[in-house]
């Protein structure tokens, strides 16, 4: 088996691409398949078969390493192709079936996974396979089906730790706290050993509820458990609990401990730390984390989005503008959400000329502007009583609207219609026809907030991502084990 370091060196040195069935003799099998520029829609089976035909049979250990790498990179279609190719001439093991079941669910959907499960002989339907199906149901939030499989698994004499973790996580995501608490009680009564995933799910639940007593008790149990790993993400979850409870000093203490455990590739950690320090109002720490992250290199658009959003939350518009200039000079791939951080900030500050100028720059860059951005601009114009501009922007919002879950700003739309009605029937009728053409009816619109309707802006997006990242980070290590 290739060692991790050796594999890393191979992949870094290989800067060639594979396209269709073209190969280069200097490439390794892994670099051919894992090339970041490889076409995800092109099957990897010809690559595997060509390698085998060249007289270089693939060792099972290497195949499993490659399979794990593909799954970690979310290349599930290729992983499924590899899993099927690996076992085409050999007998399937329950472990093979469990992996394939998970991949089928991800690639082809839950229904196909259920069909595959139903086709399995009884000899292959083991506890491990049931666990894989349970995970499929949990991912799709199929509570009833997950509970039924969980009940079947209870009758088997096997370690249920991970299964309990999956159900706890499912109940937590769906807000079913009574079922969550009942399952915790069941675990305690049965003396179920806590695994890393279980620790993380429960800790996140108590932190979310600001149940400090339960959170601290569980955290202490983790610290005293030799099998539990108190990583940077665990400290961040505890910090979140303290932050929600208004215990800023304790939250800051946990974040400083988390910083010490962040490794070289600390992209996710940096984003979470940025957001949480911003929530604490610690601007110096935000800038310190940002500067450390930049030194690591390879700063992505999402990193710029996070730091700019955090500076906006801290009311440091000048700082956000400087980061925006850094982003422009870096010449990374253009994303509208980056300038939109400043556009929203300018709007909230009443700096409409600045917001308008930056918006126009973003449009001039050639990037397609989504409907909600035009909608937000129309609302800004409406608040400033620039109704001609508001109507023009709302027209563009309507044309770009494609039935998204969010709704156009009701009050802005009505204001535009009323303004056009006052100007004359012709323009009003033309606008009404435009709405009808795109299937937009006024009674579809929900009441919206003053800040621009359903486009709640960068700050709310950041906070939503922060909550998601907090949970994902708290369970990420467990999920990989």
Automatic annotation (TrEMBL):
Pfam families: PPR (PF01535), PPR_3 (PF13812). InterPro entries: PPR_rpt, TPR-like_helical_dom_sf. One of its GO terms (molecular function) is mRNA binding. Gene3D superfamilies: Tetratricopeptide repeat domain (1.25.40.10). It comes from the Eukaryota. Keywords: Repeat. The keyword Zinc does not apply. NCBIfam families: PPR. Belongs to the PPR family. P subfamily. This is OLC1v1023981C1. It comes from Oldenlandia corymbosa var. corymbosa.
């Amino acid at each position: 088996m290739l060692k991790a370091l050796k594999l890393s060196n191979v992949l870094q040195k290989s800067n060639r691409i594979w396209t269709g069935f073209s190969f280069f003799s200097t490439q390794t099998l892994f670099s051919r398949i894992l090339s970041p520029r490889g076409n995800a829609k092109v099957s990897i089976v010809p690559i595997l078969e060509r390698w085998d035909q060249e007289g270089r049979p693939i060792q099972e250990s290497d195949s499993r390493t490659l399979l794990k790498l593909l799954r970690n990179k979310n290349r599930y279609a290729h992983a499924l192709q590899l899993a099927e190719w690996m076992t085409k001439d050999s007998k399937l093991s329950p472990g093979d079936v469990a992996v394939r079941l998970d991949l089928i669910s991800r690639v082809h959907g839950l229904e196909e996974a259920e069909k595959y499960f139903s086709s399995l002989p009884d000899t292959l339907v083991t506890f491990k396979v049931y666990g894989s199906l349970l995970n499929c149901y949990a991912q799709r939030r199929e509570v009833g089906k997950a509970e039924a499989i969980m009940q079947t698994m209870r009758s088997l004499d096997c370690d249920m730790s991970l299964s309990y973790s999956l159900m706890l996580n499912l109940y937590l995501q769906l807000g079913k706290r009574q079922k969550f608490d009942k399952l915790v009680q069941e675990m305690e009564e049965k003396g179920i050993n806590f695994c890393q995933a279980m620790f993380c799910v429960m800790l996140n639940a108590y932190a979310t509820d600001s149940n400090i007593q339960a959170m601290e008790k569980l955290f202490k149990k983790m610290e005293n458990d030799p099998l539990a790993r108190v990583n940077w993400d665990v400290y961040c979850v505890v910090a979140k609990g303290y932050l929600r409870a208004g215990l800023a000093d304790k939250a800051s203490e946990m974040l400083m401990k988390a910083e010490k455990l962040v490794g070289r590739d600390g992209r996710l950690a940096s984003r979470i730390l940025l957001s949480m320090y911003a929530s604490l109002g610690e601007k110096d720490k935000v800038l310190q984390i940002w500067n450390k992250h930049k030194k690591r290199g390879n700063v992505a658009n999402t990193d710029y989005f996070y730091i700019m959003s955090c500076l906006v939350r801290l009311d440091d518009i000048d700082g956000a503008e400087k980061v925006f200039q850094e982003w422009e000079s870096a010449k990374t791939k253009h994303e509208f959400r980056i300038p939109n951080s400043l556009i929203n900030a300018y709007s909230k500050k009443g700096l409409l000329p600045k917001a308008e100028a930056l918006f126009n720059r973003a449009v001039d860059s050639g990037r397609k502007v989504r409907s909600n951005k035009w909608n937000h601009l129309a609302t800004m114009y409406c608040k400033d009583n620039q109704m001609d501009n508001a109507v023009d922007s709302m027209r563009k919002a309507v044309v770009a609207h494609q039935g998204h879950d969010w709704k156009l700003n009701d009050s802005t739309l009505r204001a535009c219609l009323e303004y056009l009605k006052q100007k004359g029937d012709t323009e009003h009728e033309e606008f009404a026809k435009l709405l009808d053409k795109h299937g937009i009816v006024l009674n579809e619109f929900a009441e919206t907030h003053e800040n621009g309707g359903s486009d709640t802006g960068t700050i709310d997006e950041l906070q939503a991502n922060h909550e998601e990242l907090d949970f994902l980070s708290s369970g990420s290590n467990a999920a990989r084990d």
